């Protein structure tokens, strides 16, 4: 596996772990704000992000590459209203989508076909990630962010497995 490809995948592993760290911080914040359903949804998201990081890490290992884990930055601990928090989720997912697309361009330039196949899963996943954040933002816009309607959304989010 070419060096440039390995560097790019290691950088993506770091971003996926940051995503997990960010969503764990958001989950803890929601728990503190008495929004257990939001907290649960974000905790599932945190676990999914670790799986994303591991898909890249395992691919590197399977191809005889070198795993070089970078430092994970400290995420914020205050996120404002539920809508503001989900706007942050969407913004972060758009950043990850751009990063995955860039990685795909590198895989094409390096003629690394196995990485291109791996990335196709991530490209579809990013469509889903952005769409679910958008759907939650839209619901919050529709019902507002207080009282019974907020509790209803909180309950709905608690069903995520
Ligand atoms: Fe949220 O998709 Fe990975 O980072």
TrEMBL record:
Q: Which InterPro entries match?
A: Ferritin, Ferritin-like, Ferritin-like_diiron, Ferritin-like_SF, Ferritin_DPS_dom, Ferritin_prok
Extract the GO molecular function terms from the UniProt entry: ferric iron binding; ferrous iron binding; ferroxidase activity; identical protein binding
Q: Is Iron there in the keyword field?
A: yes
Task: Tell me where in this chain the Ferritin-like diiron domain is found.
Answer: 1-144
Q: Give me the Gene Ontology terms describing cellular component.
A: cytosol
Q: Does the keyword Metal-binding apply?
A: yes
> Which biological process terms from the Gene Ontology are attached to this UniProt entry?
intracellular iron ion homeostasis; iron ion transport
- Tell me which EC number(s) this protein carries: 1.16.3.2
Keywords attached to this entry:
Iron, Iron storage, Metal-binding, Oxidoreductase
In Swiss-Prot or TrEMBL terms, this protein is called Bacterial non-heme ferritin
Task: State the organism named in the record.
Answer: bioreactor metagenome
